Amino acid sequence: PQTIYLSEYKVPAYLVDQVDLRFELFEDGARVHSTLTVRRNPDSGESAAPLFLHGDSLQLESVALNGSPLRTGEFEDRGDALVVPSVPEKFELQVVTWIEPQNNTRLEGLYKSSGMFCTQCEAEGFRCITFYPDRPDVMARFRTRIEADKSAYPVLLSNGNPVDNGELENGRHFVTWEDPFPKPAYLFALVAGDLVEKKDTFTTCSGRNIDLRMYVEPRNAKKCDFAMDALKRSMRWDEDVYGREYDLDIFMIVAVDDFNMGAMENKGLNIFNSSCVLASQETATDAAFQRIEAIVAHEYFHNWSGNRVTCRDWFQLSLKEGFTVFRDSQFSADMGSPTVKRIEDATLLRTAQFAEDAGPMAHPVRPASYMEISNFYTLTIYEKGAEVVRMIHNLLGDEMFRKGSDLYFQRHDGQAVTTDDFVRAMEDASGRDLGQFRLWYEQAGTPVVSVSDEYDESSGIYRLTVRQSIPDTPGQTGKKPQHIPFALGLLGADGQPLPLKLSGESGEAPLERVLELSQAEHCFEFEGLSERPVPSLLRDFSAPVRVHYPWTREQLLFLMSHDPDGFNRWDAGQRLAVDVIQSLVGAPESAGVEPRLVDAYRSLLQDSELDQALMAKMLQLPSEAYLIELAEQADVAAIHQAREKVLGYLAEGLRDELMACYRRNVGQGDYQLTPEAIARRSLRNTALGWLLHIGDQEALALAKEQFRGADNMTDRLGALRALVNSDFAEDRTQALEAFYKRFSDDPQVVELWFSVQASSDRAGQLPQIRQLLDHPAFDWKNPNKVRSVVGAFAAQNLAAFHNPDGSGYEFLAEQVCRLDDSNPQIAARLVAPLTRWRKFAPGYSKQMKSALERIRDKAELSRDVYEVVHKSLA
Ligand code: DPP
Ligand code: ZN
Asked: Per the database record, which ranges form the Peptidase M1 membrane alanine aminopeptidase domain (predicted)?
């Protein structure tokens, strides 16, 4: 496979002004008639360039230029491209292709999912529909006519507004859609099916009425309300916070079961993976509701950050994704608990993105090269990209950031632009120089910020030395220091915040401040301190960096109960737990657990003042995945044992407090999705899980009762999970059977059922995983099922996956090879856990590497998997 470089970007030789499409949909295939109105790009230096159109898996039926069929020799069908060597300056090109959606298992382009036709064109799926200059800087107006059998496909949808419809012969009908906004082909969408319609309306800030519609399979009609409300909240929020009004008269959401991604922001016609949009109290957990709200908002926000202003090329992917993730995280923070949202985002970043940044696939937020762009829909592009925008927001402040985003949207409306254009708009609006800041887009790797301090009692000066360094990553060494906003506070022994007066400053000193790091080393002197302070560093996770400071356990305990910054309070607890667990990794059986940890958790559980949502987060022990990420050479079994030991010790020591916590938080009243209600469910289910972990009989009875009587999925699943992860083998089996029986006809819940087992070291050992693959509800063609079994096993059931005998790795290699033939995008994602082989102790890493080599040696490897495997072995 070829490598594509950002440095080789060239403007397109030809532009497309108008695309007219006619789809004839049949059971054995589809015929696509395309008419492109093309002109030479005045900005391209090449005057006699051939016309080059991408194609993939297409059967060409005919091609005509300005109405005259082209003869052999006048065009070249290369399979992956259609080339017309000689074209006039302006012309119309008519192309007819035949495709087979019913056999499309890659789920790119046009395919069928449970009887309906649907599309996925980002990033390069449109070329699987027809020949086209399939690059985001070619923006055209689309008109789309869909023809299909009327009884099987009464609903025919595409982008924009419906402008025509009618009956055809043989029981067929058609609908024509027109999208007035020029767009890249990756935003094209088509849906045809027998779907029910849910309607609502939204009145925009300027008083326009927008027709809102959801289209779902009839069995899902009851699961639409939450997403529809989330959509309306998103539309209002984007008006209030960013001044962005919706632009078409109609906005549609469609749910499909088979989908590679979570959802897709096609203009006016968002297509969602069912699991990311359908929800009801009985079938969706709190986490699912929150995820759905965030994804609905994310896709809606793309209408401006992505669609109206799009990416020039795929190296700029974070232009729309990083910005839009930042926007959806602001939205979620506004809708719920901002501290909890920040904790969740930072946890994901530190556990998974830091690991990506430290592995063989590490890449900058704006990559410089790729083989297969689908491999770059990563945590770095999305989550780190969002953190980069968040830092700009923090550096500029609310008002200037809004000025900057207004300028960006206004200046680039209708254009395909770069991350640099985004930063420039922020600079121009605010007058700030973000020159050095741009390195965040160019340099890969997670900066390490090391802090040391000195206190001089006689002068009252507290000196902080702050050093930054960025580790080497594949292809990048000797990196330059970055511009890092570093928020901090200092606490006195009584827990009071101390004034932060830098040497030489006058006036009233703030109690918290953001230091701007720009050099490899800084020294900050704070004056007027009558005691040695405890530093609270990187408050609210003000930059995506690792902070090293030699906190003592005493100091962490202190911060855990006194830091006014909620995020750092949580973080102090995490650091303490990490320290305690790490000290037990590989230690003899007899080694004791730090008793102060139990005391700290006890005061937490008894703290009636503390925000319950924060308490619920603080009670989560650091995950195995995070502990592995922090390790130099991870010994998974030892980490697993140490963590289990601490969990057991805490649960034993806090048995009564946990029971009281459970009883205090059992449900009263109706199911609600407020942060308080979510926190209560989280607290009681955590308590239940811990108590079952130590085999508590009373808790067993409570779990069974909760499992049977729950009026919502969070509690039912919480009880199921606690039972599954306990040693009560018989109760586990019974609960799993009952759960399946109750929900067997709901695919989303069946996916939960799969993943609860696959991620449990009790119910998800390899032989049991293989049984799940043979289960009648498992389906290799459905990405959600693959993720819920194979993905959950490899990413969450770490002790079982990293079985020292190597069987877990071999299993994963086998599944990757099998999937590579049908769905390479999903196959390439599943490889990820193996790519980190260098991170593990030698006994593990050798076997992980040989599993990768097995995949490498498979015949006819897809470009997707090829890139991941070869880069990991390099
Ligand atoms: N559908 C994916 C997202 O919204 C890719 N655009 O992030
Ligand atoms: Zn997105």
From this structure: 226-437
